[in-house]
Amino acid sequence: MKKITRTAYLAATIFFVVNAISARLNFNPLYPGTAFFYCVMLTVYVAIWVINKAGKLIFRKLDTGSVAVDFERKAPFPKFPIFLVVAAWAAYAIVTVGSSVLFNVSAFRDQMPDYRVGNFSEEVQVIDAEKIPIVDKDLAKKIAEKKLGEKPSLGSQVVLGEPTVQTVKDELVWVIPLQHSGFFKWLTNMSGTPGYIVVSATNSQDVKYVDDYKIKYQPNAYFLDDLTFHTRYTAAPLTGVTDYSFELDDDGVPHWVITTYKYTRGFSLPEATGAIIMDAQTGESTRYALEDVPSWVDRVQPEEFILTQINNKGRYVHGIFNFSDKDKYQTSRGDIVVYNNGRCYLFTGITSVGSDESAIGFIMVDMVTKEPVMYQMAGATEYAAQKSAQGKVQQYGYYASFPLIINYEGTPTYFMTLKDADGLIKQYAYVSVKDFLVVGTGESVQDAKLNYEKALRQNPSSNEDLNDQNHSEISGVVYRINQEIVAGETVYRFILEERKDIVFEARGTVNEMLSLTKEGDSVKVKFRESLAPIKDVVIFENTGFAEIEKFIDHTPIEEPVNEHTEQKPQV
Description:
five-stranded mixed beta sheet; 13 helices; alpha+beta
């Protein structure tokens, strides 16, 4: 019997050790997975001990060849060990039930701080057309695969990891680590995979392969080199970790930024507490609180945490028993990581419960501090904007990428790329948030911009800024002027002697005298104020041609009299 008991203890121990390592469990019972694991382990060990104390197992071989197990009881079952197991499971059940929303509705609602109401046109940075991110995650991976294909010997050894968008030296890029393609590839390259690929988020032609660093610790490594294993048992044995993000510091050194978290209500409401920053080459790690995270780190708050907290705030706005759904709201179907004034935010639309096509506002949450800002505006959801853009080019069968919201001269606007079946960009689209029927598409960003501007002018109610708001006026002498054809329309760009730091842009339809204007002419310009370096001209006057303009504008054109046309009597 003793031999059987020792064997049982050994088998149970091996089983639990293997499961703990494979699940990367921490040793802290305040986390639900660990608590459940401890309860199961205690139950098994106590069961083995109780069976050994109360009797013995008898194994009998049956005529059929199978083995039957009988228990021969010699003494009463010990009560204290059984009570200990029951108490452990009872505690687990009480904490689990006590952590539910039924007893913590205010904590569920208020985990996301109250929103600060922001002014979209003033707070969201205006992006120049040349700086709009046109490369999304899927396209970045395709571009990186093409770059990797330029090195056939390398392509057979590695695969691409998960792309991460981030700012490196004020440039928005996608960074994709190279990872082992299998166990034997790891076995023959245990020093690590050779570097990473950087793809510009604003220029699909700007891609480079960096092989100055070895990525030793990664998800596709094994044993001690495995990223999650190394993190758990060297940096966070008693802490919850999640959201492994591959980021570069300002010197291009690769790191893993790993979020640490804890539960704030029993086994519910996980909350990010900081980050572990691990050198991808050496495995050396440093733990930081949220307020101490280095400035080059773009994200700490997991997207899943943020979206869950926003939905909880909307779902329990009037408590748990709000059966009429009064004032309830929820996030729209998608979300996207955006950058504004150098900070990283999670952006998502907000819709009323039961509504899919219209948004009642938008929320941006800082992905380090979790500070939320709400922009209260009615409009289309991201999904509705995608459908509208696709409808504009339905004859080509293009599909729209998930839209990026931008500040277009004070107007909230969705921007997206239109791709073919192979995922290649064919056109670009602007869609008004206020009215998703206002769409501008084109084969270049500039073409789409001009077509969108036309659509806005045909629907002035969708853009208050097209009226006399945010307009400035300046008079000066033309220093340089040039023209080009964009989307079938003549566009003039010029610089004034008095403001050589500003490029003015005017369509030919603004004023006929633009075609006769040259360097040295005196002009008066009214333009729309924005943070963009190129200012959109709404009124143009060449003061040297004032009399000609007056003639053109006010002299009626006499129609020739047709002698066969009946003359109407004069009154």
